[in-house]
Amino acid sequence: MTSNTEVGAEYLNNRVGPVMRAGELAEAVAEAAREDNPGKEIRVDDKRAYLRIDTDDEMIIRRTTIEQALGRPFNMPELEIDLSSFSGRIQTNPDYVRFYFAKRV
């Protein structure tokens, strides 16, 4: 039997996304998150030293969208330099990064 507290905790724990060191790249990633995830509420919590960028269940951020925001070429491994942490699980690819929440049955 599951209590309401456990259900509530599970519900609140479905946020996914990067925690980025503040700066140009973090701003570009936040912009890319908004553009690459239409119809989703993207939350950006500015903590001055870092940005927590999240949404519910799944977030995809594409390399080309980051390049457009930065106005220069970008390689996805560069993301790791300013990626302090992340919520959820992560799947990396040369063309995108995916943060997701794997629900348990």
Decide which structural class fits the backbone: alpha+beta
Question: Counting H and I runs of at least 4 residues, what is the number of helices?
Answer: 4
State the low-pLDDT regions, or none: 1-8
Q: Reading side by side through the largest sheet, how are the strands ordered?
A: 2-3-1-5
Largest β-sheet summary: 4 strands, antiparallel
CATH architecture: Alpha-Beta Complex
CATH homologous superfamily descriptor: Monooxygenase component MmoB/DmpM
CATH fold name: Phenol Hydroxylase P2 Protein
Q: What distance lies between the first and last C-alpha atoms, to the nearest angstrom? A: 14 Å
> SSE order, as H and E?
HEHEEEHHEEE
Strand content: 35-45%
CATH class, named Alpha Beta
Shape annotation: globular
Q: What number of domains?
A: 1
Question: What is the count of β-strands?
Answer: 7
**Helix proportion range:** 25-40%
Using the CA coordinates, give the radius of gyration: 14 Å
What is the average per-residue confidence, as pLDDT, rounded to a whole number? 90
Looking at this protein, list some descriptive labels.
disordered N terminus; 35% strand; 32% helix; globular; 105 residues; 4-stranded antiparallel beta sheet; Phenol Hydroxylase P2 Protein; 3-stranded antiparallel beta sheet; alpha+beta
